[in-house]
Amino acid sequence: MASEPAPAAEQPPEQPPEPPAEAAEHRALVLTGFGGYEKLKVQTRRCGSPAPGEVSVRVRACGLNFADLLGRQGLYDRLPAPPVCPGMECAGTVRALGDGVSDRQVGDKVMVLARSGLWQEVVNVPANQTFLMPEGMSFEEAAALLVNYITAYMILFDFGNLRPNQSVLIHMAAGGVGTAAIQLCKTIENVTIFGTASASKHESLKERGVTHPIDYRTTDYAEEVRKISPKGVDIVLDPLGGADTSKAFNLLKPMGKVITYGVANLLTGQKKNLVAMAKTWWNQFSINALQLLHHNKAVCGYHLGYMNEEVELISGVVAKLVNLYSQGKIKPKIDSVWPFDQVADAMRQMQEKKNIGKVILVPEAPKEESKKEEN
Fold it and tell me: Which residues contact 302 (CB under 8 A, 6 or more apart)?
């Protein structure tokens, strides 16, 4: 099988609803243990009828997130112990309804958000964890929306209180959350966006609205920000952790906010790196309430994985995102689409930071790729 990613596929013709087979076999990606890329295997599983309050979904596309890379190494606390099926978001078609479900119908196109378990061809999930896809959205886009855009929206607007004429520093600006954050910043008037990414991605970032791309590999991003904005910035999105959270806090203007939502600095190779872990935790930012008083700054922590009980809150955010999509103000950027069999290549694409936008997994190889292989 070719190792090159396929471009995002066009929507196939609508298929008639399938009759749900009792305990039908389907393919799933299973993390068999913590470690390198080889720990993820395609296995056969069985899926029975949905329980009361659940719907059964035929999955067409799944999102790959940074937390999934951490989870493979045993560094993501919301992933159950192996063997486990990862996956926090997917999109597909409702194929069966459990008792008591009245707000979904067989054939509905839905996005799904869960703590884990969605990298499968068929999933049974609570109906309140599904969201109707807006008109015109592809399954790939739907699988790219929930985790990244909910995270970026709540960080920027609920914690960050982003307003016109403010400035924002977005780390990993070419990734999934970074792309979402840039688009959401563009919905507010005259926001100055600083974005860190390798130099090869700078033109793409400028085209999408980043005011000042910064190459974090060759320059000190804090110094670069200060050259342009001596007072610093109003909001820093911090997915890095460790010493970078301290740098973020020091870059804030008075009344500024740093929102930390990840520890990407833990990820330095295929497998868990104890030196990187020790260094990150040793350099972890710490401040007490009295010091915050003197600085007139805020530090916030965000973790979507711990929001699973906040159904109404998340539903409200998704409704706002769907509205923005329908208005053409946001649109998920798909970097590449990989079949389940190439999950290692998909993870490598993201872990080595080659992606611009979202990396997507699909159960089967896209038809264009299959045709190439036949010739």
Answer: 151, 154, 155, 159, 259, 260, 261
